[in-house]
Amino acid sequence: MYSEKVMETFKNPKNVGEVENYNAIGTVGNASCGDIMQITLRIEDDVIKDAKFKTFGCAAAIASSSVATDMIIGKTVEEALNIKNKDVVQTLEGLPPQKIHCSVLAEEAIKEAIENYRKNNGGK
Ligand code: FES
From the alpha carbon of 32, which atom of ligand 1 is closest? Predict the structure, then answer.
């Protein structure tokens, strides 16, 4: 049911773990499946220098976390906020309909982490 890209990314995910000296953290969950995704970021001069994830979830959630963190590294905070779950789905060459929410978790975790960063930096 998964694309080859999802399976490949699930088997060899990138950016797993926690960024050392992170200054942004976002944790989100989906109540219906119980999966949890945490993203940590190192933001310097408004640019995302590093991003890592810890996901306790399904293959689609892990693959989504991997491509989403990959997509935001090197981007500005504003650019990262513009990344939508459909971009994640596209990069993964599609997700089954019942797995779309897994990609939404990635979008939400990025937003949550950036919100956390802004809160800790005087709302900039
Ligand atoms: Fe819920 Fe994948 S089944 S995140």
Answer: 1
> pLDDT value at position 124?
52
The rounded distance, in Å, linking the Cα atoms of 38 and 105 is 9
Structure confidence by residue, pLDDT tens digits, 1-21: 899 999 999 999 999 999 999
How far does residue 124's CA lie from ligand 1's centre (Å)? 32
Report the residue among 36, 56, 58 best suited for mutation to probe ligand 1: largest number of ligand atoms under 8 A from its CB: 58
Q: Ligand 1: does its nearest atom lie under 6 Å from the Cβ of 13?
A: no
Q: Is 33 a catalytic residue?
A: yes
Per-residue pLDDT, 23? 97
Kindly give, in sequence order, each residue whose CB lies less than 8 Å from that of residue 54, ignoring residues fewer than 6 positions away.
16, 17, 18, 37, 38
